Amino acid sequence: MKRVTVGIFAHPDDESFGPSGTLLKMVQDGVDVHLLLITDGEAGTNPSNAPDLGKVRLDEWSRATELIGAKSTAPLHFPDGELSHSMHIAIGAALHAEMHRIIESYSEPIELSVMTFDLLGLTGHLDHIAAAYLATHQFYGLKNDTPPNVTVGELWYYCLSREQAPNTEWTDYYMPIGRDESHINRVVDVSDVLIRKYAVIDAHVSQVHDANAQKQLGDELLSSEHFRVVS
Asked: 36, 173 in Cβ contact below 8 A?
């Protein structure tokens, strides 16, 4: 049975600065990875004062997802920083349509899993939290009404460990500490694809400050990616 993973994320660099090593390994192991992007990231940092940051970031995302080896990608173009409750029906409908586009692209039976950020939004970012809940809704919707030829696999919540995020910090939004060992039930060793992971991170040139912050964690911490996986 063909294994398929659909990643659902809020911003163009979320999968790259997050579980890109695991996605690289999935592709390496023959899993078809499809990536759905809710916003264009136009509200992100803009050190070069690009007049259309959203387009710049979508171009960077295209390069990064090409490096990951994604089979398909789809940006949904909802407003960055504004994923409010009132938008959930519209976003959910768009995600539902893309999920079924992916499913219908296969003639053979597939096992479909979903990947997103932890329900705390990893850093507490409200867009991340919205994306995580929307992805969760899509996953359980498929479990409750499974299309023909589809076996619903697992829901992968990417999170940080206490070693990766040891301290509570207060910034423009709440940033929780990493999850402890009792929460994490899957750790993926990505040391063999770490150089490729760095290339994916570096594809997001406009977000160089966040990219550098990621790399400052060092090879050892970036060589493990942590998840809470449910089925």
From this structure: no
Name every residue whose Cβ is closer than 8 Å to that of residue 191 and which is 6 or more positions away in sequence: 219, 223
CA distance 64 to 78: 20
Residue 77: predicted pLDDT: 97
Closest CA to 18 of 230, 206, 188, 231: 188
Q: What is the pLDDT of residues 120-153, one digit of tens each?
A: 998 888 999 999 999 999 999 999 999 999 999 9
- Global pTM exceeds 0.70: yes
Spans of the chain, pLDDT less than 70: 168-174
Angstrom distance (rounded) from CA 61 to CA 15: 9
Angle at 175 between CA 170 and CA 177, to 5 degrees: 110
Delineate the domains of the chain, giving CATH numbers in brackets.
2-230 (3.40.50.10320)
User: How far is 26 from 33, CA to CA, in rounded Å?
Assistant: 8
